[in-house]
Model the fold of this input.
Amino acid sequence: MRCPHCPATTRVIDSRAAAGAIRRRRKCQGCGRRFTTFERVAEQEPAIVKRDGRRERFQYEKLLKSIRLACAKRTFPEEQRTAIAEAVRTRAMQSDRAEVSSREIGEWVLERLRPLDPVAGFRFAAVFRRPEGTEALRRELAAVETAVPNPSGEARDSSQPRLPGLATGGDGHHLAD
Done:
């Protein structure tokens, strides 16, 4: 390996295992500086097939960013966000396919996100599934509400999905009705 400080080559002084990598201490044979490198196995990630047919490489940071956007201003720990992204990435790699559709990736995120935070799941679905019109948004919201148990035990009016933040009257209808 070449030294990052001069054009000379380096030699390995020490090598040991580190978290998911091999840590190597190196010394430059030209300038004498020492530095550390980490070697990781380059895993082959599948290509992502977009809606319009384009193919692009799997971008972990892009996936994590979309999850973070869905969870914005929610009390949702960063560790869980990264765990979802990592689980989806692992699932894509373990599929042993050269290509995975972006639709599949989105559904895998929703599988993990909705049970943890229904609002973040709705936000993600509202962008990922691109519902056209208010009726499609209502169906997405109804899907979230049927997937999440009602903490009060009340029966829900299935004809009208309940919007978050709206109180209901004694008859079960929204006060805004």
